[in-house]
Structures are given as structure tokens and as C-alpha cells.
Protein 1
Amino acid sequence: MPHEVKLPAVKLWGGDFYNEGVTGEILFDKLKEECGVFGVFGHPEASHLCYYGLHALQHRGQESGGICTTDGSQFHYHRGMGLVKEVFDNDKLASLKGSIAIAHVRYSTAGESKLANAQPLVFKYREGDLAVATNGNIVNAPEIRKDLERQGSIFQTSSDTEVVAHLIARSKHDDIVEAAREALVKLNGAYAFLFMTNGKLIAARDPHGLRPFVLGKLGDAYVFASETCAFDAVGAEYVRDIEPGELLILDGSGLKEDRFTEKTKRAVCAMEYIYFSRPDSDIDAVNVHSARKRMGRRLAIESFVDADIVTGVPDSSISAAIGYAEQTGIPYELGLIKNRYTGRTFIQPSQELREQGVKMKLSAVRGVVEGKRVVMIDDSIVRGTTSLRIVNLLREAGAKEVHVRISSPPFKNPCFYGIDTPSRKELIGAQKTIEEIRKAINADSLHFLSKEGLVESIGHLHGETQGGHCTACFDNMYPTQVPDEETAACGCD
Ligand code: SF4
């Protein structure tokens, strides 16, 4: 007789939702943002604050959104596919009662875009209700999941978050804080976690602080967010960044600052500064727009070229382009315009439609670039296909020369920490020399920012001697153990 293991009950909630269905983004050769989390403790309008907070974090995920609140005795929640403004309306928000809430916007890799994975995930386990929202990726989640399945656990989603919920449910500790602590030390990866019960809100940041996570105050209430721009949206005051390995607990007795591990080494994702985060956010006390401007200035020092105008690929490269223009004295011009109203369309990923997708999103301004030698600043090159199209847009609009300057080093290695990146085989930075890339994107010249230039532009976070950043996608120096690329799947959970 096989030994029978008695399992604690863990059950995914059902619940109402609408707006189901997968919408497709216009395909664009850019890295995909991960997810965003927002939390409130002690505010009577918690669900409305979450709505505005999520709205400010929409750039971090556009596939689904969700809010879960508690009135102290039961949960109220709503999740849906689509943008925050499509998922929620006044009636939905009014039905989310209570002064404690956690909320989430999600981006997922293709094929995983389904409502079951939308967050917050809400569970019933032996100690009551539990809601979980996270931004990041648990590198060892597949192993933990297999282990749990061998022991009898049944999973209802493909989300790493459910793995963590099972770890909590199986903990020998009844206390949620101790159970969360026990689960967190088993994880390897990048995460900003929010856990909620009917009386507690718990926040945890991974031991490397890979994903950003901040604490704020709004009157007597506490708020949490992936980025500080969400605090500005709700009028909250930034208090501080949550430290790597830190565990913050809020309940009726106030805020308790604790840690789940002392083994920490700061390695904040450099791509948050280069591309992902909003320019008005501060990450680990460094403003994103200012860091990008310094990247542009440094790029100009490292790779000056005589030209008539500097232009940035909107939106994420505009700050670096301003920096490049300031440093060189070459005027900054709006040579490229982004069409903000393309919306979300159902298109097939054929080559022809990809081309059209870029034209729908970006236009070159003929009156600005015609007959000019143009320096085009972009934040990164992934496969090279988008860069080629943008260079060609500028040429078609009459640019005499197009000099491409990239405000980050060549992107050579995949990310395992919640950023959806193609495999090394598809990364042009891993496959070609800089001269080969220049030819492939049809540029007159091409330069990338050096890694030293990048680190100095961001600055040494909290005085860390080695900078305190993760730069693995440029230098292959991963801050944690990573799996074999061929078997790994990484998207934001
Ligand atoms: S590998 Fe790159 S994208 Fe991933 S966390 Fe590190 S710096 Fe960020």
C-alpha cells in the first residue's frame, strides 16, 4: 500500500468576471514589460485607489487586471482580460468593499494569456481566505511544482503564484506570516509579492531586489506599488523602497518591518531604468528620466557623430535622446511620432502585418528629417527587425543619413526574472558583430552604450560598491542560479 499523504485543502475561488477573451497587441520587436502590483491597507476607498494605481502601472501589463479587497470578514474581487479601464467600471469598484486591497496588471507570454492566470489569485485554505499578487518570475517554480504534484497537489493555473500558495497551504505554521516566510525562503527568482488575508497585508521583495517595489503613505493608510508613479496617481507620499529580502506586515497593530532572509545582494534590474519603468518613477531612489538622460549624455561622449538633428524612438528613448542632444549641442527634434490611438487589434503575425503594425504605431516626420543627417536614439535592439523598419521609415521620409545610438549595451542573454525575451538564437546582439548589426538595420553607423557607461549613468544604488544592478542580459552574470535556456520558460507570472 502506498503511504497516503493527507493534504491541506487549497482551492481556487470561482467568481464573477467579464470581458473574457484574448486581445492581441500589435506585434512589436520590443521586450515585454512584466507585471505591476498595487496594495492598500487602511483606506475606506481601497478599491478606487487600486484602480488609479493600476492605471498608472498599465505600461507594465495590458493583458489583464484585477483587484481583491477585504471588508475584514470576506473577500470581494474582480478580474478581467484587457486594460484596467475595460475591466472595471464604477459599479464593479463600488462592489469591492473594504479598506484592505491588493491589485495587479499582467502581461504574459503568448499562449498563457487566459483569465485563470489573471491576478490577484484568490484561494481558500485551512486558515481562511488568501489573495496573492506578484510581479516577477520564480526560476525554480517548475521544480517546486513537480515536487508538490508528486505529493498530491493539484494545480488549477500555470502561474507560479499558485505554487507559492500551495507552499503556504502546506506549511506546518498556522500563522500566515510564518507560512509566507517559510515559502519565500524556498524560492529562487525575482519578485514583489503582496499577500492578503481578511486581517493582514504582507509585502515581500526578493533577496536581490530585482523587481522594483515601494512603500508609501496616504494619510494614515499604507500603500504599496511596483513604481512610484502609482503613488503620484493617488496622491500618496513615497516613504521608501522595500529592501531586498524584506517582509513588511500590516495588521490592526500597525506596520511591522521584518526580513525573511539575511542573505541578500542588491541586483536591481537595469532594464527597468533603460526601458520598462515610467520616466516619472524613482527606483531605489534614482529617477528613471534622469538616469536615461545620463545614459544619453554618456552615449554622446562614447560615440559622437556630426549630425543635424537628434531624435528618440518614442516613448522610452526620448529622455536618452534629450541627454545626447544636450551633450553634443545638436538640436533635439521630434523626428518620430507615436500614434497613441492604434488601440488593440486582432492581427496575424505575418511579416506583412508586422510591417504594417510598425507603420500604424510610428511615423517619421518628413518636414523634420528630410535632407538631414539624423542621430536616432533607441533604448535597445532585440531581434533587429524593428530597428530596421524605423531606420527605413526615416530614410523614406528623406533622411540623408541615419546614425543609430543605443542607450544600453548589446542585449545578448535571455532574462529569467520576469521579462519576456526571445532565446539567444533570436537575439541579434548574441548572433552578430556590431558591424553586422549595423548592416542588418541599414544604418550609416551604430554604437551601443558601454556597460560601464550604463552602470555609472544609473549610479551606485544605496552606495553599493559594484553598482547594485542586474546586467545579466548584457554580461551573462546572473545574480541567481538560472536554468538551462532550452528548458526554461520565463514570462511574468
Ligand atoms: S537579465 Fe536583464 S532584463 Fe532580466 S532582470 Fe537582469 S537586467 Fe533585467
Protein 2
Amino acid sequence: MFGAKSFSCFTAMAAALVFILLNVAMVCHGGKTSSFIRKVDRAEDMPLHSDVFAAPSGYNAPQQVHITIGDHVGRAMIVSWVTMDEPGNSLVRYWSEDSPHKKELAKGHHVTYRFFNYSSGFIHHCTLRELEFNKKYYYEIGMGHTIRQFWFMTPPEVHPDTPFTFGLIGDLGQTYDSNKTLAHYQSNPHKGQAVLFVGDLSYADNHPNHDNVRWDTWGRFVERNNAYEPWIWATGNHELDYAPELGETEPFKPFRHRYHVPYKASGSTEPFWYSVKIASAHIIVLASYSAYGKYTPQYEWLEAELKKVDRSKTPWLIVLVHSPWYNSNTYHYMEGETMRVAFESWFVKYKVDVVFAGHVHAYERSVSATNCPLSTDDMHLI
Ligand SMILES: *[C@@H]1O[C@H](CO)[C@@H](O)[C@H](O)[C@H]1NC(C)=O
Ligand SMILES: *[C@@H]1O[C@H](CO)[C@@H](O)[C@H](O)[C@H]1NC(C)=O
């Protein structure tokens, strides 16, 4: 399945692992890679006063800082953050490590939204463009009030022989276990350079009235990693936030305002399905909870997108989707079936290398599979 490319992965707990692309000989570390055993008790959300939710000090200090790739090839970065006291400005000052005196200024914009009786802070999004590949950049936000400084590395230029290390996290939430997952990922010696996030971010919808304060706490919680490395977002069922009983009938409203992705760069019309190319990988993000039947925008986009994949430039073709097409657990069993029926033959035709999914909170992987009987007996779980 992986041809001359090699594949090695290091599993962490629940849904976090580091995934490495190396273009050397075939190595595959199967078996047990972690001593972690999940406790059986239901995970408990960290209380609002937890250290990881503390807002940064200072008037109107930027919080919930997060970045994602801002174009189709990794030469741009979207920087997002929230100010709570007043709009402030959406300026980002940035410079490369090589030329600390050549500071650039980019201007973004801010949005706000209401959800039932919750009013968001001022959510800023600013895209830094024409960055150099494989370079460390520092950036500052909060000019005029409280300035905070962060940094990131741009990915290397798209090239078939360029190695890259992805982290893989899904269904993170904000429980004590979520905190352990993030700490585990960050302590992995095989440092991830970007996170592939397979949906289900904050689980704010588990709280009364989908308490959107829990979107804010989540943003503050993951900032310690997400302000420094891009997370590639896919949406899960916990991003739907469809609540007609609260008068909220616009699906994905909090996600759409808070998490911007470069969907237009890949010809998509919605931020829920899109693609990015990073190093030697072409990554396609699909949306389990947006329409994907024949004639829908997602269907037509994917049909066209798969034809654009150039394996001579990006030998790896990776798909992220929330709901798995194969699942031997009773929980969420067959929820991914209709999408499998819609798209699996294309994945075979275009030789997708690996599909990462979340949703089921149990680690499971299989050899390449297609059109498997529903018993999954023949699926070769490994
Ligand atoms: C929203 O409504 C709930 C339930 O009535 C209440 O507990 C909460 O304090 C309200 N929040 C705001 C921000 O008004
Ligand atoms: C979360 O994890 C970090 C890093 O390990 C730790 O410093 C912090 O105290 C933890 N917080 C909670 C509430 O578990």
C-alpha cells in the first residue's frame, strides 16, 4: 500500500499520534508503542478555573491564539486570536529569524457572533502571505494594548522527497484526559511540525445551551501548541452546533467564525472540505456532516480535486474525515457507511495512501481495505 515510501507511526493515547513521512526504506513499527491504558471512567471536563484556561494578563490581551496553513502550498499562515475588552486591531507584525530588522505588518479583520445568549469576543483573522518556506518566523499581536509574541516554522517547499512529521489528534475536548493527550503529544521526541486534526474540537455542545464559553476555554487550552504550529482542521459532529430549540439553526456557526481555513485556495466553496499540500503530502479534508451525495458541492469538489493530485510532486495522498468508514466498535457503527459508498471507489482509483478518522474513541487501524463485508472479519485489523 505504501510502495517505496515508508510509514512509521508512534501512537500516543486515545487519539493522538505522530505520523512521519520519510522517503527511505520501508519500516513499519506495528504492535504496542505506548504503555498508556485509558481508564474506564467517563472523562471529566476541567473546571473553568483550571490553569490551562487562564486568560493572559493585560488589558485586551490577545487570547486563544491559533494558526493554520493559509494557502494551498504552505507559503501563507492564518493567524487567529480573540480580544475580549474591545476590538483593538487585527494587525500582525512578523519577521523571519534571519532578518529581525525587516519587520512586516499584515492587516486582517475581526468577526463576532452570538449563540443563544452568548456573545463572542472579537475574533481576529489575519493571513500572512508570501512567506519563505522552511523558515522560522516570529509574530506579535495586540499592538496598542497588550502585545504577545509567538513564533512558527513554515513548512518546507512541496517536493516528493521532503520528509515531514505530522501530529494526529482528534476528538480532543477539554477533559483532564485531553490535557494529558496534548502534553503527551508535545513531549513526543519526534516533534510534530503540524497537527492533522480530525474533528471534534471543544465539545462545548455538551454543556447547557452549548455554552460557547467552552469554545473560549478550549482556545486558551490548546494555544500552548496551536499558536506555534499549524493545525489542519476537519469538522466533526461536535462542530455542528445545530440547536433549533435555542433558535440556532445555522450549522457550524461557532466553528465557522473561530477557525478559518484556506478552502478557497483549493477551489472549495466551504471551509469544511478543502485541501492543502505540505512537503510530500497532498492532504484532502472531507466533511462527514456536510452533504456529499451526487451533485452536492462537496461531491463535485472532491471529484475535481482527486484529478489534480500530482503524485510526482506529492507522493503521499492523505484524507482526513471525522466519521470512519470502517469501524469494528459498536459505538458509531456504520455511521460512515453512506460516505464510504459515495467515495470509496474513487479512493481506490486514485490510490489514497491513508485515511485518518476520529469519532470513535478507540484506536484502530487496518491494512488497505475496500468494499469490505460489514462484519469486518475480512478487514485485517492490525
Ligand atoms: C444564558 O442562559 C442561561 C440559562 O438561562 C444562564 O444560566 C446563563 O447565565 C445565561 N448566560 C448569559 C451570558 O446571559
Ligand atoms: C495540564 O497539563 C499541563 C502540562 O502537563 C500542566 O502544567 C497543567 O497543570 C495541567 N492542568 C490540568 C488542569 O490538568
Protein 3
Amino acid sequence: MYKVKKYDVVVIGGGIGGYYSARVLRNGGKVVALIEKDKLGGIALRWGALPVKKILDSFKGIKKEQIKEIRENLITKWDDDLKKLEKKIINNLLDDEIDIYYGDGEFIDSKRFKIGSQIIETDYFIVATGTKPASIKDIPIDGVNIITHKEAIDLTNIPKSIIILGGNVEGIEFAALYAKIGVDVIVIEKEESILLGNDEDLVFPIEENLKSLNVKIIKGIGARKAEIGKNRVNVLLDDGSIVSAEKALVTFMRTPNFPKGIENTKIKTSKDRIIVREDLLTDEENIFAIGDINGILGMAHVAIQQGIKVSDYILRDIPVDISYEVLPRAVFTFPEMAGVGKQEWELKKDNTPYKLGIAYFKDSWRGWAKNIEEGFVKTIIGLDNKILGIWMVGENVSEYIGLMGQLIKEERTVDEILSNLIIHPSLTETILEALLQSKNEKVIG
Ligand SMILES: Cc1cc2nc3c(=O)[nH]c(=O)nc-3n(C[C@H](O)[C@H](O)[C@H](O)COP(=O)(O)OP(=O)(O)OC[C@H]3O[C@@H](n4cnc5c(N)ncnc54)[C@H](O)[C@@H]3O)c2cc1C
């Protein structure tokens, strides 16, 4: 016999997108249920982004001789830390009086979802079920030797050596992490550059740092096949050579988590996503899809923003409107890279002329006081002096980029920024310095 319960909104998927949507809706007065198939938190809070950053942060600014101690400390406390994190997520949801259901349920139709013996009825659904790692047939993930980020984040099981398949953001952050804790790392990237889609001068310091940690980076050659030997993975590359390590981490492919029973609704899917309109509605007028599952941009802050915007629509009828082109991006390595707006390669591709300014953190008064040696800010402006892009490399730069997308969205000019005071002495003065310079530089393109 089924029990039936009615909600205003049901969120399917307790990752970062689902978590924020559920809380915003509940705080706005809606009666909300959250359904999670596995563990709350999803990739960002439980299986990837946040744990990776926690480990990387632990190694910031420390001396070489402290590495062993920090590593041991992290490993001993790792299980406990994750349990604390999980408890925090659950408590926040329960404090908000959100009903949590665990299990792999299914759509009955566009208004009803079945989970165990419970039928949940609702006015709106938000699908936020994310994606999971995938691979090619000849590189089969077994979770032991050929692993994904879910196993790679488990610090209680660190290999002596690892091959990272993919020099993308995920691959390069794991390369930095593993190299710091003393693992022999090989990165295989089939394109000619790691962190593809970023200007060479931004990638260069990160690549140099990885090399200084003895990371071997093989570029321009893909991985074709992986075979598991005795405690070893042998990876055959496109040029016929073989590289070998204790484990291989696959980062180059993901596949969508479609909820069961989707065929009982009018929701349309493609091979890799749920298809949504610009306002994030599916082909059902009461079912939204947010975060990685809609394939728009696979980043945690995109999932959060989409969740908040959809919630605003449900609560207050505010149209969903998101400017993806001014969302900030970051790579959490040593040093970090962060920025917003256009990069040079994009402007060159579009034949858009621009002016460039570069200023170094070490040349600012605060940089001098802090003994900062590395890092710079690169500003890109148009011929009308409007800001097109602000990019940075250096320690903690992900913290400075914050709301700068708004400057680009509002089409602010260099003069408008220069007439606003920035704290002295601070490292953000380097941004002013770069902007000042870009104004007077010659036009490129
Ligand atoms: C290693 C790594 C590092 C990353 N670092 C960053 C970073 O620094 N910054 C950044 O912006 N992004 C980062 N990302 C990307 C970011 O984690 C994702 O964009 C984000 O997690 C997407 O959130 P989501 O809520 O859409 O999906 P997910 O986080 O995937 O959450 C989906 C949830 O739905 C659940 N679920 C799945 N199917 C069902 C079902 N049928 N029923 C109920 N529940 C279900 C899952 O168990 C999961 O809990 C990183 C990704 C990885 C892999």
C-alpha cells in the first residue's frame, strides 16, 4: 500500500544545485522535499570540488619539511572530516524543515514521483541529478586500479604512482594535489595544451609548477587502451608507447544521471543531457532541470545560480535570466588561475581588436610587504576602454575575482573603475595597475 504526501516543490538530487534550490524555496515559504539516491552534497560538496580544495588549501604557504606532517594529519582525519561535512549538510536541510527522502525513485507522471512505498505529489519538480564519470570501452573503470574522482578523493588509499587521463581542470587539480602529497604523477592530454581554452601565459606558470613537482606531462597524444596487470595499470598511447603506474584516474568523460521514469513525462533528453529552454524549463511546464544535468556549463556556481533563479521564478515569478558569459572561472592549483570575461585567444578568433595590461603582484606595495614573488593580473579592454576580461594567476586569486563579472556585464570603462577607490595597500591594487596600463597600450588585432 502506498503512502501519498503532497509538496509545493520536489527537488530530485541533493548535490549543490539541489541543496541551494531546496533551501531558497523553503526559506521563501514553500513546502519542499529533497530526494537523494546516494549521499547528500553531490560532487561539489562530497566527491570533488570542496574536498579537493580542502586538501590543496592545506598545502598552501607551507615549507617543504612540513609536507609529510600535513599529509599524515590529513590522512588520519580524512574520514572524520567527511563525516563532519555530511552532518553539516544534513543539519542545514533539517533545520530548514526540508523533508529528505533517500533512494532511487521514479517519475509516475509530471506531478508524481514514487520512492519506495511513498508517492510524492507536487506542483513543481526541479531535476538536479548531475552527471557521473564515464570512460571509453578500452579504458574500463573498475574503481580499484582505473578510478574516478570519487576514489581519487579517498586519502586513506593513496597510490605511489598515478596516471591522470585528461589535462582538464579536474585532471590538473588532481595532478597538483597528488604531486604535493608525494605521488609520482603522469598527465596524458590528447590536445597540444593542458587547461585547453585558456591563454598560454595563464597556463604557463601552472605547468611550470607541476613540472617542478616532477609531474610528467605528455601532450598531443591520447590514451587508447588500459590494461590492469599485477597492482599496475598499463596505458597504451596513440603513438604506440606505454606508460604505467599503480592507478589511472579517468577525467575526460561524463555521462548524465537521468532519473528513472523520465519516459513517463514529456521531458526530452539527448545522449548527454536533459534538454531545457533558456528559462531552464523542460518540455513539461512544471519541471525544471538545473546544474550539470542540463549540460549548459558544468560548474558548481552555475548549478547554484540556476537553482536560485528557478526558485525565484517559482516564489516570485521573476523570469530566469542568467549571463553565462560573465561567470567567473577558477583553477585551484599552485598557483591558482581565476578570471572572468574574454581571453586573448577568443578575441583573436573573433577578429576583435583589444588592448592589454599586465601587472605583477610583487610590484604592488602589499605584494612587497608580503614577500610575494609570483603572480600577475592581465586585463583586456576594448577600443572604447570597456572591460572585456580580467584574468589572474597567483596564490588565492580565486578569492579576488568574486563579483568582477558585474563590471563586464554593466559594460564599465577603465575610467569608471579608476575613479573608485581601492584599498591601499592591497593586492587588488594590481588590478588597477593593469587597467591603467591597458588604457595606454597599443591596439592588438
Ligand atoms: C573533481 C572535481 C572538481 C571540481 N571542482 C570544481 C570547482 O572547483 N568549481 C566548480 O565550480 N565546479 C567544480 N566541479 C564541477 C562541480 O562539482 C559540478 O558542476 C557540480 O557538482 C554540479 O552540481 P549538481 O548539483 O548539478 O550535480 P551533482 O553535484 O552531480 O549532484 C547530483 C546529485 O544528484 C544525485 N542523484 C543522481 N541521480 C539521482 C536520482 N535518480 N535520484 C535522486 N538523486 C540522484 C547524486 O547522487 C548527487 O548527489 C568539479 C568537479 C569535479 C569532478
